[in-house]
From TrEMBL:
It comes from Sistotremastrum suecicum HHB10207 ss-3. This is Citrate synthase. It comes from the Eukaryota. The lineage of its organism: Eukaryota, Fungi, Dikarya, Basidiomycota, Agaricomycotina. The active site is at H332, D388. Keywords: Transferase, Tricarboxylic acid cycle.
Length: 485
């Protein structure tokens, strides 16, 4: 390895060979590929699959300390509880901006002028109408389908309507060229995805109620229009509650981005194959659906319901400490103090409760918060409330069903996913497909054994499980039929 270009460097001595390597430190990071140059001869008896002579691997299960991109979008200081979008503190944006303005900031890098904002708002709201065939997509789901399953499918399906937006059909450089035409095409998909996200979410909501779908209204703000699309039936001059519209708008703003969380990373991983943005956003939705990510606000309410009244809180906390339960809404991979968004959400909760009435689980939540914040177990592990601890209570007070909570997270997060996707498509040096390595610890080479000469391997996890066929009626179970086993 040659001399580092910067004065900051890391000196590594490989005790296997006695060789010393100097690895440049840039932006307080070292390049994992630099370690590929650190090679050693294979020891006698060492597994060939270790590939020791081909360079050292950097192992990081769960991306605990691996930076996969350079970004200008969001900064988090997890120790200090700081969150900034494009340099602006989240607290200032929450009190002075609005969701769509913040979306512009996240995607394009600067706060818009009045005319820039007006044009962005016009394009986003103009692109909220869906092809009428999408109605049959929603109607094809079973009556009790989870709305996130609908959202994931709907985003993927949406891409099929725009062949001009598909690099598989138009050429792989469709979004990476960086010329005005390519960027305009990219921005059009961004307007469509943000504009249609609320329409899809409202359809996922209405289809389960057996309600007809409504066209997005004109003359309403983004979140106001979303509330209208969910709730309007036959009323004349229907106008959603301004308190609820404002609260939802701030919640959307707070959920718009959070740098490289699991779903954003998924969008970038998928997008790195240069697939169309609709498919990439669909995978983000799938990732967000998981209980360790966007499903946490729903899990908080289920947890609070299971605890019931405040007198059961101490026993629940003890069960968490015995690792029998998880305190949902607490803990974060990045924040090691209170999530700054949780304070803002707590204030919004009070505003919402003024018009909706207090949620009956609030007392339980407040006591749980108080006990956990003063308990050595949580203090030692730096476990504090995250954004989901209070947001579920607000959504419940607003009357949203529990399984709709992740949708209320996914809709605004479309903005963050798109901001990162756009940045990656336009990054200097082009897009590299995200293809990590593994540490192979499986069998060495072995030869195929014909079926009659094999010794079978049996046991738990070592063969397919025997399963119950619950879908079969008693009559079908008793019927005679041809069966291999
Ligand atoms: C968010 C989360 C997945 C982060 O996980 P992580 O960074 O991998 O943290 P770890 O699982 O290593 O946790 C560190 C320690 O705290 C404990 N811990 C973390 N979150 C906990 C929680 N919510 N309740 C109880 N214990 C928790 C772990 O058991 C571990 O304890 P140990 O060191 O004694 O084994 C995790 O905190 C969690 O599951 N929280 C609840 C779900 C949630 O609210 N998710 C929304 C995030 S916005």
């Amino acid at each position: 390895m040659g001399a580092p270009a910067t004065t900051d460097s890391l000196t590594v001595r490989d005790e296997r060979t006695g060789k010393t390597y100097s690895i440049p430190i840039v932006n307080n990071s070292i390049s994992a590929t630099a370690f590929k140059a650190i090679k050693a001869p294979k020891k006698s008896g060492e597994r060939e699959e270790n590939e020791t002579e081909r360079g050292l691997r950097v192992s990081d299960k769960g991306f605990l300390n691996t930076a996969v991109i350079t970004s200008e979008i969001t900064y988090i200081d997890g120790e200090a509880g700081v969150l900034r979008y494009r340099g602006y503190p989240i607290e200032q944006l929450a009190t002075q901006s609005n969701f769509l303005e913040t979306a512009y900031l996240l995607i394009y890098g600067a706060l818009p002028s009045s005319s820039q904002f007006a044009s962005f708002e016009y394009e986003v709201t103009r692109h909220s109408i869906l092809h009428v065939d999408t109605e049959s997509l929603f109607r094809a789901f079973r009556y009790d389908a989870h709305p996130m399953a609908m959202m994931t499918s709907a985003f993927a399906a949406l891409g099929s309507y725009y062949s001009e937006a598909n690099p598989s059909l138009q050429g792989q450089t469709l979004y990476t060229k960086g010329d005005p035409q390519s960027i305009a095409n990219m921005d059009k998909q961004i307007f469509r995805l943000i504009g249609k996200a609320t329409t899809l979410a409202a359809m996922a909501y209405r289809v389960r109620q057996g309600r007809p779908f409504v066209q997005p209204p004109t003359g309403m703000g983004y979140t106001e229009s979303f509330l209208y699309q969910m709730d309007h039936l036959t009323e004349e001059n229907y106008k959603p509650s301004p308190v609820l519209a404002k609260a939802l708008d701030i919640l959307f703003l707070l959920h718009a981005d959070h740098e490289l969380n699991a779903s954003c990373t998924t969008v970038l991983q998928t997008g790195s194959s240069l697939v169309d943005p609709y498919s990439a956003i669909a995978t983000g939705c799938a990732s967000l659906y998981g209980p360790l990510h966007g499903g946490a606000n729903e899990a908080v309410i289920r947890m609070l319901i299971s605890i019931g009244s405040p007198e059961n809180v101490p026993a629940f906390v003890e069960a968490v400490k015995r690792r029998e339960k998880v305190l949902s809404g607490f803990g974060h991979r990045v924040y090691k103090t209170s999530d700054p968004r949780s304070f803002i959400v707590r204030q919004i909760a009070d505003e919402v409760f003024k018009v909706t009435g207090k949620d009956e689980l609030l007392e339980t939540a407040m006591l749980l918060h108080k006990i956990a914040m003063n308990d050595e177990y949580f203090i030692k592990r730096k476990l504090a409330p995250n954004v989901d601890f209070w947001s579920g209570l607000i959504y419940r007070a607003m009357g949203f069903p529990l399984d709709f909570f992740p949708v209320l997270f996914a809709v605004p997060r479309v903005v963050g996913w798109l901001a990162h996707w756009r940045q990656m498509m336009l990054q200097s040096g082009g897009v590299k497909i995200w293809r990590p390595r593994q540490i192979y610890v499986g069998s060495g080479k072995r030869d195929y054994v014909p079926i009659n000469s094999r010794e079978s391997v049996a046991g738990f996890k070592k063969e397919p499980s025997s399963i119950a066929h619950t879908g079969q009626s008693k009559r079908a179970q008793l019927a005679e039929h041809r069966c291999k086993l």
